[in-house]
Amino acid sequence: MLFGKRERLIRRILVVEDEPLVAFDNEHLLSDAGYEVVATVDNLAAAREVIEKETLDLVLTDIRLAGEGDGTGVARIARGRKVPVLFVTGACPDEAAALAVGCLAKPYTDKMLKASLEALDDVLQGREIKKLPAGLSLFG
Description:
The termini are far apart. Strands 2-1-3-4-5-6 form a six-stranded mixed β-sheet, with helices on both faces. The chain is built from five helices and six strands. It is an alpha/beta fold.
């Protein structure tokens, strides 16, 4: 279809965020944009449960989380299941490139998050991106 919508690879997303307002906003933004938010959790243990039980296309995780563990731990678990990870954080860790496909800098707008997910989908489908959305860094 020449002018139709492109098929997305990213459809089912796990949101891992311990700041309630950010988690709520992300969940509603993603749902309104046509993504299925499989779960929204705030800690490593809950993220592990979802990653191990659900089919996911992407994990969107902050670095700092409630309880023990952090977003890098979430990314390691997701990587073990071959699920891509996008960090959304104020400071991307040094090991981010080895753990995730990219990092979106906080604070970000709804438009920046949607554009970042579209760019990430393009990358995962092997398409060239002419210009990265503001705040987004992609690895590898």
